[in-house]
């Protein structure tokens, strides 16, 4: 049996679309169950989910995270294959069958093509047809919130980490890879993700985000689990810039030891000019974002690692009436 585990908060009509797409894709095709884990919604998401036949659960801890919701769903699931979705996604017909066939060849899990639709004020303002750029079957370099996993493989890796606020998929993927458990990425439509476009947050809102803290939290957990070598928190260009930045920091510290504060000040001034020139050159090529992301990644790592908090994993089944 396939256990489809959906997480959400205040999704409203989105939950209805998600669960209806699951029923349309699997009804009469494969035995399945639907589980909805709600992060203390204030709307009618729970009622909608129950009316469509989902077993509904609510975590005891009000400080919910996506990983906590998925871990609650994992504990409640009856199936040996677990399909994880977010409440703002719809499942594409045919993916589950293709994923199961691939997993029969020894993979721990499967994911597919993610289509993003950007919506603002109820109106579609953009679209990305293949978010991860999958053109052929391959071992997944990364996966997002939509992934199908063997239950035994997930448990062998330690399950979802409820303490990580964001980047929980990368942290789990690192533990899977450390144990030689590969996820296959298929050139098959898997989900459509509705991304609500928010108004511009300004410089402060762009820099200070939960995701940046989550990167540090994921790194701390990966170091603890011994899987930091497999952790991928950002794209390849950003990783290369981050490595360069670490080398520069090391050189600056060496300059401080050798020449004192004067040497450090001279080094910092020269490096600031070099970084500014590089940023201008990269901006013309459209790659400035990677350089900025690399410095923000390093700047936020200590804060993220320090912000990790333990969360309770208890939960209760919601017994409302449909």
TrEMBL record:
This protein's record includes keyword Amino-acid biosynthesis: no
Family annotation (Pfam families): Glycos_transf_2
PANTHER family in the record: GLYCOSYLTRANSFERASE, GLYCOSYLTRANSFERASE 2-LIKE DOMAIN-CONTAINING PROTEIN
Record's GO cellular component terms: plasma membrane
GO molecular function, one term: glycosyltransferase activity
Pathway: Carotenoid biosynthesis; staphyloxanthin biosynthesis; staphyloxanthin from farnesyl diphosphate: step 4/5
SUPFAM superfamilies: Nucleotide-diphospho-sugar transferases
Family named by the database record: Belongs to the glycosyltransferase 2 family. CrtQ subfamily.
Role according to the record: Catalyzes the glycosylation of 4,4'-diaponeurosporenoate, i.e. the esterification of glucose at the C1'' position with the carboxyl group of 4,4'-diaponeurosporenic acid, to form glycosyl-4,4'-diaponeurosporenoate. This is a step in the biosynthesis of staphyloxanthin, an orange pigment present in most staphylococci strains.
Localization annotation: Cell membrane
GO biological process terms on file: carotenoid biosynthetic process
Source organism (scientific name): Candidatus Onthenecus intestinigallinarum
InterPro entries in the record: Glyco_trans_2-like (IPR001173), Nucleotide-diphossugar_trans (IPR029044)
Domain Glycosyltransferase 2-like: 3-122
Keywords, in A-Z order: Carotenoid biosynthesis, Cell membrane, Glycosyltransferase, Membrane, Transferase
Annotated protein name in UniProt: 4,4'-diaponeurosporenoate glycosyltransferase
